[in-house]
C-alpha cells in the first residue's frame, strides 16, 4: 500500500567501504525507478494487476495474516482507481541484490498512509518485490525535500557451499548479509516489519514498522 506521486530530486548517500565481488552495482536510483514504474503500471493497468506483474513467486503480503502474494492476488479484481505512492528513502545491500523502500501512499478517497516494500533482483537482474505492507495514517508523514538512497557497508559473506567451480567458470558470489529483514505476525493480526543495514561494525535498524491488530 502506498502514496505520494511527485518525483523529487535524488540524493545518494553512499556508505560502501570496499568494492564487493558482485554482478550488479548497489544503485538506489534503480530501485526508485522500479517504484516509479510500479506506481505508473498501477495507474495504467490496475492496482492488483501491477502487484501481480511485479511480484516474485515467493513474495508475501499481509491480509492481515501472512499470505503468498500471488495466490491472494489472483483472486483480486482491480478497484476502479488505484492507490498512488512514491518512495521517500531506499536502502540497498552491498551486493546490489536486495533493497528496501519506504514512503507515502494515498487512496482516491483521500486517505493516506505509509508503505514498505522489499525488493530482490531476479536472475535477469530485474527488481521484483518480495514483501509489501503498510498501514493507514491519520496524517501523512512529512515528505523529504530529496529522495534519499543509502547503500550498506560491505560485509563478508558465508563461504559458498558445494564443489569449487570448474576451470573457466566464475566463482559463486558469497551470500551478502549487509541488508537483512524480518516480518513477524501475531495471532491477533498485528505485525512488525524490520530492516537492518550493516554499518561496518554492526547493524543499524533503518525501518521498524509496527502495525496494530485490525479493529
In short:
The protein contains three helices and eleven strands; from the N terminus they run βααββαββββββββ.
Write the layout of secondary structure elements.
Elements lengths: L9 E4 L14 H18 L1 H8 E8 L3 E3 H5 L10 E9 L5 E9 L5 E10 L5 E11 L9 E5 L27 E7 L5 E8 L4 E9 L4
Parallel strand pairs: 1-8, 2-7, 4-8
Antiparallel strand pairs: 2-3, 4-5, 5-6, 6-7, 9-10, 10-11
Helix pairs in contact: 1-2
Structure commentary:
14% of the residues lie in helices and 39% in strands. It has a domain of 146 residues: Nuclear Transport Factor 2, Chain: A (Roll). The chain is globular. The two termini are 18 Å apart. Helix 1 crosses helix 2.
Primary descriptors:
215 residues, mainly beta, Nuclear Transport Factor 2, Chain: A, eight-stranded mixed beta sheet, 3 helices, 11 strands
Helix content bin = 10-25%
Distance between the termini: 18 Å
The CATH topology of one domain turns out to be Nuclear Transport Factor 2, Chain: A
What's the pLDDT, averaged over the residues? 86
CATH C-level label of one domain? Alpha Beta
Number of strands: 11
**Architecture (CATH level 2) name of one domain:** Roll
- SSE string, helix = H, strand = E? EHHEEHEEEEEEEE
Which class do the helix and strand fractions yield?
A: mainly beta
What percentage of amino acids are in beta strands? 35-45%
The rounded Rg comes to 18 Å
Gross geometry: globular
> How would a textbook summarize the main sheet?
8 strands, mixed
The spatial strand order of the largest sheet comes to 1-8-4-5-6-7-2-3
Compute the number of helices.
3
Poorly predicted tracts of residues: 3-22, 158-162
Amino acid at each position: 500500500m502506498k502514496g505520494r506521486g511527485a518525483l523529487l530530486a535524488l540524493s545518494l548517500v553512499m556508505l560502501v567501504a570496499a568494492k564487493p565481488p558482485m554482478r550488479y552495482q548497489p544503485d538506489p536510483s534503480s530501485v526508485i525507478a522500479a517504484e516509479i514504474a510500479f506506481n505508473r503500471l498501477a495507474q495504467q493497468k490496475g492496482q492488483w494487476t501491477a502487484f501481480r506483474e511485479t511480484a516474485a513467486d515467493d513474495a508475501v503480503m499481509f491480509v492481515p495474516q501472512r499470505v503468498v502474494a500471488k495466490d491472494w492476488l489472483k483472486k483480486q479484481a482491480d478497484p476502479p482507481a488505484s492507490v498512488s505512492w512514491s518512495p521517500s528513502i531506499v536502502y540497498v545491500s552491498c551486493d546490489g541484490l536486495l533493497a528496501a523502500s519506504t514512503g507515502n501512499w494515498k487512496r482516491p478517497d483521500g486517505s493516506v498512509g505509509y508503505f514498505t516494500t522489499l525488493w530482490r533482483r531476479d536472475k535477469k537482474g530485474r527488481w521484483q518485490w518480495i514483501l509489501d505492507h503498510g498501514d493507514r495514517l491519520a496524517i501523512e508523514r512529512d515528505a523529504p525535500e530529496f529522495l534519499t538512497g543509502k547503500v550498506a557497508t560491505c560485509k563478508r559473506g558465508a563461504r559458498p557451499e558445494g564443489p569449487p567451480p570448474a576451470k573457466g567458470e566464475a566463482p559463486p558470489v558469497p551470500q551478502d548479509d549487509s541488508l537483512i529483514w524480518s516480518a513477524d505476525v501475531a495471532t491477533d493480526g498485528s505485525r512488525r516489519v524490520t530492516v537492518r543495514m550493516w554499518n561496518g561494525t554492526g547493524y543499524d535498524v533503518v525501518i521498524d514498522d509496527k502495525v496494530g491488530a485490525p479493529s
